[in-house]
């Protein structure tokens, strides 16, 4: 397991301001920061001093015909590149710019591939499977792995210690600040590569 952490510096004045709910703010901000670090590692981590992201191990289910655009057939081929037992729990993951391109795709009958959700709190879908957005998925570019489709229950996450918070009173005293550092140890790996297939852009 690998250690990840983040640091927040707080001024003495803010610490003394009892009207500001500092404890809850720090807890929320630490959670946001750690969550973002984990999301990045679990997607694109190379396994060097960080978890191995699923893009390192997932199989290339489809390579697009062009280097700059995704077609309806590309998405259909990606869907069927995943073996049927994994499709019941499978979801799509892509970044926002790829999602924008997917929203414009139509089949041969002029029907949009994208299916917006009609129930609050549930994700949109493609070919009946949910679609999730992550800013850490690569953008459309030559040879980039821009979209993943699979059962991510086969991506195993190991939390090896609880999150710890340490107060640093002296380190930043010259600037009249107090540091708060949080760390935790975590690892992750796709243990069954065939459970996740990716769409890779063609070489330019």
Topology:
Blueprint: E1 2-11, H1 12-16, H2 22-44, H3 54-57, E2 59-63, H4 72-81, H5 84-87, E3 91-94, H6 96-103, E4 114-115, E5 125-126, E6 129-133, E7 145-150, E8 155-159, E9 164-168, E10 177-190, E11 196-200
Parallel strand pairs: 2-11, 3-6
Antiparallel strand pairs: 1-10, 3-7, 4-5, 5-6, 7-11, 8-10, 9-10
Describe this structure in words.
This protein is of the alpha+beta class. It has six helices and eleven strands. Strands 2-11-7-3-6-5-4 form a seven-stranded mixed sheet. Strands 1, 8, 9 and 10 form a four-stranded antiparallel sheet that branches. The longest helix has 23 residues, at 22-44. The protein is elongated and about 65 Å long.
Describe this protein with a few key phrases.
alpha+beta, seven-stranded mixed sheet
User: Which stretches are poorly predicted, pLDDT < 50 over at least 5 residues?
Assistant: none
**Structural class estimated from helices and strands:** alpha+beta
Question: What radius of gyration results from the CA coordinates?
Answer: 21 Å
Approximate shape: elongated
Number of strands: 11
Beta percentage is 25-35%
Distance between the termini: 38 Å
Enumerate the strands of the largest sheet in spatial order, edge to edge or round the barrel. Answer: 2-11-7-3-6-5-4
**H/E series, N to C?**
EHHHEHHEHEEEEEEEE
Main beta-sheet annotation: 7 strands, mixed
Number of helices: 6
The residue-averaged pLDDT reads 92
Helix content: 25-40%
